[in-house]
Write a structure and sequence with these properties.
The protein is of the alpha+beta class. 51% of the residues lie in helices and 18% in strands. A three-stranded antiparallel beta sheet has the order 1-2-3, with helices on one face.
Length: 162
């Protein structure tokens, strides 16, 4: 009933084949990059720790020792714990006494703050506020330790003659 144009069918098939070939090349390239990154991180375990610490946080992650703000090499990070702790506030204590202790279940309020100061190898500097929660403070400390360890390892590798 309907006759297909063999020329158009051949062109369409050629386009499909070209897309398949390009997709295959892209997948192969991604696989090679992933294997290279995996091998690099096996030699630099501090980067894996640094990236684990910055998951769901606004701290910059690293790939091959480079962050979105600059290189880790030549950088330094410090964690300033400015009295971050949990404390009872006067309001919570008064309400707790007035309600016969029922509202004391609400708990203590986070007080103070923590700060991460990061200086990157290109001279860029960034400050990040850290919520005064135990898990966040622990992750901030882990991030700073891993950042400094990775920076030291990269500096040591650069100073060694090949």
């Amino acid at each position: 009933m309907f006759k297909r144009d063999p020329e158009k069918t051949a062109q369409r098939q050629a386009r499909r084949d070209e897309k398949r070939r390009e997709r295959g090349e892209w997948v192969a390239k991604q696989r090679v990059e992933k294997e290279a990154l995996s091998a690099w991180r096996a030699v630099h375990p501090a980067e894996k720790t640094l990236n684990a610490a910055c998951m769901l946080r606004s701290w910059p992650s690293s790939k091959f020792g480079e962050t979105s703000l600059g290189p880790v090499l030549g950088g330094h990070a410090e964690f300033v714990d400015a009295g971050a702790h949990k404390a009872w506030t006067a309001t919570r204590l008064v309400v707790g006494v007035a309600t016969g202790g029922a509202s004391l279940v609400a708990g203590r309020k986070n007080k103070g703050a923590g700060v991460i100061n990061v200086a990157f190898g290109n001279g860029a500097a960034q400050t990040y506020n850290v919520a005064p929660e135990n898990s966040t403070l622990r992750m901030a400390n882990q991030y700073v330790t891993a950042f400094n360890a990775l920076a030291a390892q990269l500096a040591n590798e650069c100073s060694q003659p090949s």
